[in-house]
Design goal:
The chain is of the alpha/beta class. The chain folds into two domains: 335 residues, Alkaline Phosphatase, subunit A; 92 residues, 2-Layer Sandwich (Arylsulfatase, C-terminal domain). Helix content is 28%, strand content 17%. The protein has a ten-stranded mixed beta sheet with strand order 6-5-4-3-7-1-8-9-2-10, with helices on both faces. Strands 11-12-13-14 form a four-stranded antiparallel beta sheet, with helices on one face. Strand 13 and strand 14 form a beta hairpin. Helix 6 runs parallel beside helix 8. The protein is globular, with a radius of gyration of 21 Å. It starts with 6 loop residues before the first helix and ends in a 14-residue tail after the last helix.
Length: 469
């Protein structure tokens, strides 16, 4: 059930009443690529060094159960931009286009008087990963320094504004992109209008061994403590992957620290809503897998920190609500006091962040509408639908019940409970809940080919949409 509390009601109900006297906040959304929820010092990872994000967490509202509902790049980014689920906006594969007519967060905030900016990775245009994206497909962003997609972090290009001339970021692209974001902040420090800045980094997505040397030197593979769900035959590879992955993480942590320092120096920190998140996680060898798409915790769980001193205070709070990808847009708009488009399907958690009721039923959907890319059918990929509750993860594939984990007693999801007699009642209850949620979402759970045909996408023999580099 969506939160129907009015702003006036929230002013009475929330303990943060005085905060609403503040002007509309500036908004910065920092989105990393493939950074799983567990890979932070504050989350208890003994391997990684993330002091700046650890500090941010100590000063923020943290959603400890944030979920990427379709854990792959383009679907999540399109859901963030539109507040819709993937089968509604149609971007359920990588490298297919989001409609230029979509009602996006940037268009909405722009119409509410915000300046809008995007820097870094875009990946919702679907016309080639290095192709020029004309302004009519910028989805409401005015300041534009972006490229559709690259993972060559030391040879990374972008297009600026409306020019078709390809430019190159200097050095490691996340560092250069962050510096550009800092320049944007300094330029807007005294502006009359608030701004919405979307800074989208490519790392820590693989290739893992490409962070600057100073960060790679921080990590020795042989010293890592691996989770128990990494199979023995993947231990050596996982240690190597983790060393590079965490090097990227530490580089981005420094970027975040520099960004916050600039906010402070520019006098913007108090009334800027800073949201840090990722599009999905990374298996990194857990369950014998790599990357994402699969319904395991390492794939679907993402970091989500919200920091806004003037509006939310600076005290740390942990929220266990199951916020999903499509919920980010309406939640940000709610915090900004901006009307939410009728096309939005996600829930507005702004009242809950301020101390009000959780607008959800503590169940959220996870899915793969069409396996592709690194998780093709040849590699075991398949369609699935599932739910994540505060305790359980339950999924079905087209053949029937597939996975059931007790995430409290079995946090590494080592024991699949599907088909066990002693859990038959629980499985039936979760199955009924899943079917109810799918019906409410108008998701018929059809084979991938049906959705590909409906949207007119061309895919290769592996189910992947071809793209030009």
């Amino acid at each position: 059930m969506k939160n129907t509390l009015t702003l006036c009601t929230l002013l009475v109900a929330t303990p943060f009443v005085g905060a609403f006297a503040a002007a509309r906040p500036n908004v910065i959304v920092v989105m990393a690529d493939q950074w799983r929820a567990s890979a932070f010092g504050y989350a208890g990872d003994p391997n990684v060094q993330t002091p700046n994000l650890d500090r941010l967490e100590r000063e923020s509202a943290r959603f400890v159960n944030a979920v990427s509902g379709m854990p792959v790049c383009c679907p999540t980014r399109a859901s963030f931009l539109t507040g819709q689920r993937a089968l509604t906006h149609g971007v359920f594969l990588n490298d297919v286009p989001l409609s230029p007519d979509a009602a996006t967060i940037a268009k909405t905030l722009k119409s509410a008087g915000y300046d809008t900016a995007v820097i870094g990775k875009w990946h919702v245009d679907g016309h080639g990963r290095s192709s020029f994206i004309p302004p009519e497909r910028h989805q409401g962003f005015d300041y534009w320094k972006a490229l559709e997609c690259t993972h060559d972090y030391n040879g990374s290009f972008y297009y600026a504004s409306n020019s078709p001339v390809k430019l190159k970021w200097e050095g490691y692209d996340a560092l250069a992109q962050t510096r550009d974001a800092e320049n944007y902040l300094r330029d807007h420090a005294k502006a009359d209008k608030p701004f919405f800045l979307f800074l989208a980094w490519g790392p820590p997505h693989d290739p893992y061994q490409t962070a600057p040397e100073k960060y790679r030197a921080l990590y020795a593979p042989e010293k890592f403590k691996l989770p128990p769900n990494v199979p023995t035959n993947m231990v050596a590879d996982t240690r190597k992957m983790m060393a590079g992955y965490y090097a990227h993480c530490s580089a981005l942590d420094d970027c975040l620290g520099e960004l916050r320092a600039t906010l402070e120096k520019a006098g913007l920190a108090k009334n800027t809503l800073l949201l840090f998140t990722s599009d999905h996680g990374d298996l990194l060898g857990s369950h014998g897998g790599r990357n994402k798409q699969q319904p395991y915790e390492e794939s679907i769980r993402i970091p989500l920190l919200l920091h806004w001193p003037a509006g939310l205070g600076g005290q740390p709070r942990q929220l266990d609500a199951l916020i999903n990808s499509e919920d980010l847009m309406p939640t940000i708009l709610g915090l900004c006091g901006t009307a939410i488009p009728k096309s939005v399907e996600g829930l507005d958690y702004s009242g809950h962040i301020r101390g009000g009721q959780n607008p959800s039923d503590s169940v959220t959907l996870i899915s793969c509408a069409a396996p592709f890319g690194q998780w093709t059918r040849q590699r075991g990929g398949k369609e699935y639908r599932g739910i994540r509750t505060l305790r359980y993860t339950y999924t079905r594939d087209l053949a029937g019940p597939w996975l059931l984990f007790d995430d409290v007693r079995d946090p590494y999801q080592l024991t699949n409970l599907v088909g066990r007699a002693e859990f038959a009642k629980l499985q039936a209850e979760l199955d009924a809940t899943l079917k109810r949620k799918l019906a409410a979402a108008h998701d018929e759970f059809l084979p991938a080919a049906d959705y590909i045909k409906k949207w007119g996408y061309q895919v290769d023999a592996t189910g992947t949409a071809p793209y030009n580099n």
